[in-house]
């Protein structure tokens, strides 16, 4: 399995505002790059915080890229995955439509009524007692044949994936906006590290529009 975290941060390092509303940090060229990365992936992963904030669809937008996937014998869109301990994903969320298979990674905490409501819309994976055990959940995804994984956020999930040692690569677009706010989400939120900080090796720097795409490989821990 190869896990790529892709996100867009403002010049001051925020993924969105303190209102946790979706903000277009990427410009047209970067959104096209993100679309190509989605098209090259077997699954696109987000945390339930992103589903509740953004109601994302997480499909490939370019029809030519979807057609190419079909010609290659793959589904038109990659699978979608939500990390959602207690099954808070609304049943009318865009991510649960018929455009792609969706996996909901739950923990044992998820109430039976939520499981029953969601089972009609998604494949349910249970891993972990309270929060989702990411190592076990990702192992189950791999058993389903999902090898090329793209994670789109948000900051809580990205921190936990670094903590679990699951990230192989980080692609961060830094855009030309200042968002500010001490409570605005950043790339890696959660508890934060105080020692054993994950370290990165810079692989590429590309200018895109008025921003910069930084590609790092994550060192083994
Ligand atoms: N600019 C960008 O590229 C992007 C920006 N965003 C922005 O980020 C914000 C949302 O991010 P955020 O609030 O951090 O939410 P996340 O999308 O990171 O989801 C976090 C939630 O996932 C659930 N979860 C379950 N298991 C785990 C685990 N092991 N580790 C971490 N989380 C777990 C938790 O909810 P529970 O306990 O209920 O399971 C947790 O609160 C929005 O404002 C959105 O717009 C999002 C993506 C990309
Ligand atoms: N790459 C990128 N740049 C930005 O500026 C963004 N705001 C995001 N957000 C992510 O994209 C998801 C929306 O996907 P759909 O268009 O609905 O398919 C959103 O939920 C964030 O994960 N990404």
Topology of this structure?
Elements: E1 2-9, H1 28-39, E2 43-47, H2 48-54, H3 63-71, E3 79-83, E4 102-106, H4 112-119, E5 123-126, H5 134-143, E6 148-153, H6 155-163, E7 169-174, E8 200-208, E9 211-218
Parallel strand pairs: 1-6, 1-7, 2-3, 2-6, 3-4, 4-5
Antiparallel strand pairs: 7-9, 8-9
Give a nutshell description of this structure.
This is 2,5-diamino-6-(ribosylamino)-4(3H)-pyrimidinone 5'-phosphate reductase. With 221 residues, this protein is α/β, with parallel strands linked by helices.
Q: What is the CATH class name?
A: Alpha Beta
CATH fold category name: Dihydrofolate Reductase, subunit A
User: Could you tell me the mean pLDDT?
Assistant: 98
* Name given to the CATH homologous superfamily: Dihydrofolate Reductase, subunit A
Strand order of the largest sheet: 5-4-3-2-6-1-7-9-8
* Strand residue content: 25-35%
Order of helices and strands: EHEHHEEHEHEHEEE
| Biggest sheet descriptor | 9 strands, mixed
Number of H/I helices: 6
Helix content: 10-25%
Shape: globular
Q: In the CATH hierarchy, what is the architecture at level 2?
A: 3-Layer(aba) Sandwich
What are the distinct ligands in this entry? Answer: NADPH dihydro-nicotinamide-adenine-dinucleotide phosphate, ligand LIKH6CAM
Distance between the termini: 17 Å
Structural class of the secondary structure composition? alpha/beta
Radius of gyration from the CA trace?
Answer: 17 Å
Instruction: Give the tally of structural domains.
Output: 1
The total beta strand count reads 9
């Amino acid at each position: 399995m190869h896990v790529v975290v892709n996100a867009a941060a403002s010049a001051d390092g925020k993924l969105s505002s303190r209102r946790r509303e979706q903000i277009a940090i990427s410009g047209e060229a970067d959104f096209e790059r993100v679309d190509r990365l989605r098209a090259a992936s077997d699954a696109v992963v987000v945390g339930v915080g992103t589903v509740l904030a953004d109601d994302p669809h997480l499909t490939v937008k370019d029809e030519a890229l979807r057609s190419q996937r079909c010609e290659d014998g793959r589904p038109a869109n990659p699978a979608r995955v939500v990390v959602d301990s207690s099954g808070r994903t609304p049943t009318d969320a865009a991510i649960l439509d018929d455009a792609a298979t969706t996996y909901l990674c739950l923990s044992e905490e998820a109430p039976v009524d939520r499981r029953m409501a969601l089972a009609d819309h998604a494949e349910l994976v249970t891993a972990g007692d309270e929060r989702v055990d990411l190592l076990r959940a990702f192992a189950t995804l791999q058993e389903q044949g999902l090898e090329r994984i793209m994670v789109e956020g948000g900051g809580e999930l990205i921190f936990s994936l670094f903590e679990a040692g699951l990230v192989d690569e980080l692609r961060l677009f830094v855009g030309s906006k200042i968002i500010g706010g001490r409570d605005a989400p950043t790339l890696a939120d959660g508890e934060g590290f105080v020692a054993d900080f994950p370290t990165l090796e810079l692989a590429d720097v590309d200018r895109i529009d008025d921003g910069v795409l930084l590609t790092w490989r994550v060192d083994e821990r």
